[in-house]
Amino acid sequence: MRLLEGKTVLVTGGSTGIGRAAAIGAARHGANVAINYASSDDKATSCVAEIEALGQKAIAIKGDVADPTTAGDFVKHAVAEFGRIDVMVSNAGICPFHAFLDMPVETVDRTFKVNLHGAYYMVQAATRQMVEQGEGGAIVAVSSISALVGGEFQTHYTPTKAGVHSLMQSAAIALGKHNIRCNSVLPGTILTEINKADLANEEKRRSMESRTPLGRLGEPEDMVGPIVFLASEMAAYVTGAALLVDGGMFVNLQ
Ligand SMILES: NC(=O)C1=CN([C@@H]2O[C@H](COP(=O)(O)OP(=O)(O)OC[C@H]3O[C@@H](n4cnc5c(N)ncnc54)[C@H](O)[C@@H]3O)[C@@H](O)[C@H]2O)C=CC1
Ligand SMILES: C[C@H](O)[C@@H]1OC(=O)[C@H](O)[C@@H]1O
């Protein structure tokens, strides 16, 4: 069953990792896709090519989500290409691991600006367009298990993910009257570029794996079903929800 037939899906940070898997997964479900990306033209071009090979349309728009003007520009380009938007997957994020006591101010500022402010601007720009269209829509924000638990080297990061989770709850209330649903996914540990260096530490990787009842860390593809589900009409009565996608890591205290 194709759950996003004829829909236009926007994905931020869509050229790699979870965003890329979500973009291609949405296309497999019948969507045309616009991705925002930060830097690598090659990866964005190859994502577009993969989507086109599936018989769907795709565009890639470069832009820093921390810049408030990027969101409006992204939505404008998508509407110019596809005529409308139906789903925004707010995914772009960074996690530069660093100790707390000597955390540079610039690292804190940048992490907040990309992860939280960027999500805010993107969700706002997308939903302004959805309200104008008058036919509802869906937002899926990529928060994290880190919205619920801390990390010694993530003191600047975990508050942004709690913020994204909270943003979806408030936006769900603000936008329910427009039939715009706002939900978040909370990935556990998914093997991507964001944690490649951190998980190169064998001991850390093994400890994360052993905390996961399903016995393995996640792959970007593990996020596709939950994101597509929340974006689709299958979740027509789901809003303000947060879906843990973590192989059971969160509930495993002992
Ligand atoms: N990999 C994991 O274990 C988990 C990841 N997440 C979240 O998933 C999201 C995606 O990350 P991953 O796919 O894991 O890593 P990734 O590094 O492959 O993807 C992050 C994407 O965001 C883009 N990006 C970064 N800064 C940007 C900016 N200023 N403007 C536009 N794009 C920007 C990057 O270029 C990249 O494509 C992030 O929000 C991350 O916090 C959440 C929980 C766990
Ligand atoms: C980057 C981390 O490895 C990853 O991101 C998160 O949000 C979780 O803390 C994961 O472990």
Distance between termini? Answer: 39 Å
Tell me, briefly, the overall form: globular
Mean pLDDT: 98
Low-confidence stretches: none
Structural class: alpha/beta
Strand adjacency order, main sheet: 3-2-1-4-5-6-7
Number of helices: 7
State Rg.
Answer: 17 Å
Order of helices and strands: EHEHEHEHEHEHHE
* Overall CATH class: Alpha Beta
> Tally of extended strands?
7
Query: What's the name of the CATH homologous superfamily?
Result: NAD(P)-binding Rossmann-like Domain
- Number of individual domains: 1
Topology at a glance:
Layout: E1 8-11, H1 17-28, E2 32-37, H2 41-53, E3 58-62, H3 68-82, E4 87-90, H4 105-133, E5 137-142, H5 158-175, E6 180-187, H6 202-210, H7 224-231, E7 242-245
Parallel strand pairs: 1-2, 1-4, 2-3, 4-5, 5-6, 6-7
Helix pairs in contact: 1-7, 3-4, 4-5
The chain binds 1,4-dihydronicotinamide adenine dinucleotide and ligand LFPNKLMZ.
The ligand C[C@H](O)[C@@H]1OC(=O)[C@H](O)[C@@H]1O binds at residues 95, 144-146, 151, 154, 161, 189, 194-195, 198.
Domain Ketoreductase: 7-193
GO molecular function, one term: oxidoreductase activity, acting on the CH-OH group of donors, NAD or NADP as acceptor
Enzyme class: oxidoreductase
What would you say this structure looks like, in words?
- With 254 residues, the protein is α/β, with parallel strands linked by helices.
- It is 41% helix and 15% strand.
- The protein contains seven helices and seven strands, in the order E-H-E-H-E-H-E-H-E-H-E-H-H-E.
- Bound molecules: 1,4-dihydronicotinamide adenine dinucleotide and ligand LFPNKLMZ.
- The ligand C[C@H](O)[C@@H]1OC(=O)[C@H](O)[C@@H]1O binds at residues 95, 144-146, 151, 154, 161, 189, 194-195, 198.
- Pathway: Carbohydrate degradation; L-rhamnose degradation.
- Keywords: NADP, Oxidoreductase, Rhamnose metabolism.
- Residues 7-193 form the Ketoreductase domain.
- It catalyses: L-rhamnofuranose + NADP(+) = L-rhamnono-1,4-lactone + NADPH + H(+); L-rhamnofuranose + NAD(+) = L-rhamnono-1,4-lactone + NADH + H(+).
